[in-house]
Amino acid sequence: MARRKHGSGKASRGNRINAEAHALTLAVEIATAWHRGGGADRPEVPLGVPATIAAAGLLVDRTADVAAGMKSASPESFIDIARSVWAVTFSRRPDVAMSVYPLLGWLFADADGASVRQIKATADAALRAGLLEVTTTERRFDCDVFGALLGALRSRTATKVNAQMYTPGDIACALAAVALDDLEPGRSFCDDAVGTGGLFRAAVCLIRSRGLDPADMSWFGADVDDLAIAAAAVNGLIWGLGPRVYLYVGDILVHPHWSDEARARRARFLEEVDSLNNGIKVLDFLKSL
């Protein structure tokens, strides 16, 4: 995965508001494109399609090439490109696969022509609305695209974003500042209602503003929603959280020691995929789950 430079992390409130507004616009455009084609109530598909585009953008230095290649691809070719994107991503970061796979069922399904065209139309809408601008540039630290998108996909209409998973930037920043008052390298950051990772993003901004690298931290997040956790895993790639990300799907009231279980689950998963030689085989393994 292409390594991008760590900036100072300083961004004006105006920049953040503009990025958040862009994220909300993206959410509406993507959700509208999906529902316009008569899309079934399967938010994992229109969530997984932009996740794929974002992952592709992180693999290369010239995101313009990614956008051009995906725009010009046929619907069937786009599916092939998507499989390749995740194969490469998982070959480099197999730890991400366990959490992301709820978004990838459409890669394995024997979809009919109409469904494949609808997936491509959703991808085209994401590209037209500038998804790569807020997932691969410095602007990616100023918003949570997938939080807004998950809210839009779960609202009754695509134009009314339900903020069920979307933590407003100002609130997230304030909470992160309190949690990381004594910030130092190697610390852990924990959010037991992580959603798509809004507090993670705010913490990353604070960490970078102090000249530190988020990848030197350990990140723990829990939620009952597997799609929110999957989106948080994608956001972890976008925000550069590094390899020590432990995400848990489950009820923390029933499992108060969930962080230990998250470590154990990930360790077991990595043991199972350790013998697999490449990302394609990881994809095949996920298909069997």
UniProtKB/TrEMBL annotation:
Coiled coil: none annotated. GO terms for molecular function: methyltransferase activity. It comes from the Bacteria. Keywords: Methyltransferase, Transferase. GO terms for biological process: methylation. Residues 156-261 form the DNA methylase adenine-specific domain. This is N-6 DNA methylase. It comes from Amycolatopsis plumensis. The lineage of its organism: Bacteria, Bacillati, Actinomycetota, Actinomycetes, Pseudonocardiales.
